[in-house]
Amino acid sequence: MSKLSPKLQFLGSTIRGAALAVSAAALAGCVAQVRVAGPPPPAVYVAPAVVDVQVREAPPPLPDYDQPACPEDGYLWTPGYWAWGGSGYYWVPGTWVQPPRVGVLWTPGYWGFVGGVYAFHTGYWGPHVGFYGGVNYGFGYVGTGFAGGVWAGNSFSYNRAVTNINVTVVHNTYNTTVINNVTVNKVSYNGGTGGTIAAPTPQERQAAQEPHVPPTPLQQQHVQQAAKNPALFAHANGGHPAIAATPRPAAFNAPGVVGARGGQGPATNRPQNQSGNPGQAVNPAQTQNRPQVANQTASQNPASKPNPGKKPNQQKKNQKAKPHPKKPPEKEDGGR
Questions:
Q1: Which of 96-105, 205-214, 256-265 shows the lowest per-residue confidence on average (mean pLDDT)?
Q2: From its phi and psi, is residue 85 left (phi > 0), alpha (psi between -120 and 50) or beta?
Q3: Could you tell me the strand order of the sheet in which 94-97 lies?
Q4: Which residue from 68, 169, 250, 334 has the least number of CB within 10 angstroms?
């Protein structure tokens, strides 16, 4: 095979160099395209598909309690619910919470009976209120949607008809009567025997597809603190937790804590005992057996109060020897 002339060799080298340059430019263009691509979209938190726990025991009925007053503008109400712990159900008190950002609403979590077990669907923040099992949590959460207030621009306006608002503290309010089309009861779960009969509406299904935000760190701390309080477990309080609602998350001992009706009530709201300590509850059974009560009963009847300086027989004689109304005249006759 004959050798190529120097001119042809130079031409071949030039062509190969141009081809490599074109390939490098094309590769550089591809790399540039990858580098300028925008960041991947953030992960979407779709809470309705998130099942926190599954158990075979139905949750207790919802306790009956009053709502604490809204502490200040911008706080939104999150209703209380029964959560599952290692030794059974415990109550997570309802509380007022600052939302993670403007424009979002709270969809409460709920228990649903599916496949022979009760599964808890975690609550979440989103542009619209989604499905929460048809459970009537009260205070605007009547089983579907939310009637406790609306966002008006960057401010939240509260409906005084269904929420506890102090107008001297919170100024963005309105008053609209809420028509409740859901049966008013204390059922705390959806489906199964005795549960609510409700299915997601088209609007709630659409809300489930929207971007969601998980509970705030303060909300998570609120749940963790409730799980550590033995008095909040249903087997200890009989379904009537002493801390049913709080004015702020994790503020279990703050002024304004509300206890469930039918229960003993929170320690901060209990009457003071004889030592004057409001944190100690007075047991009525123990109060009846206290010596002080017996002394009070005796003091109400002076005739039955014993005199430690005299013998019992002398006390009886003295009681018989009490002067009668006619005695003074007899003494006057005897002195003549």
A1: 256-265
A2: beta
A3: 76-78, 94-97, 245-246
A4: 334
Q: Is the pTM value of this prediction over 0.85?
A: no
Higher pLDDT, 268 or 108: 108
Give the Cα separation of 84 and 59 in Å (integer): 8
User: Cα(153)–Cα(134) distance, rounded to whole angstroms?
Assistant: 29
Nearest to 136 by CA among 178, 95, 96: 178
Confidence of residue 264 (pLDDT cuts 50, 70, 90): low
Q: What is d(CA 129, CA 204) in angstroms, rounded to the nearest whole number?
A: 7
Alpha-carbon torsion (180, 77, 238, 54), positive or negative: positive
Identity at 89, one-letter amino acid code: Y
Task: Mark 107-146 as b/e (b = at least 16 C-beta within 10 Å).
Answer: bbbbbbbeeeebbbbbbbbbeebbbbbbbbbbbbbbbbbb
Torsion angle (degrees, nearest 10) of CA 163, 166, 169, 171? 60
Rounded Cα distance between 279 and 196, Å, is 38
Q: What is the pLDDT of residues 318-336, one digit of tens each?
A: 444 445 444 444 444 444 3
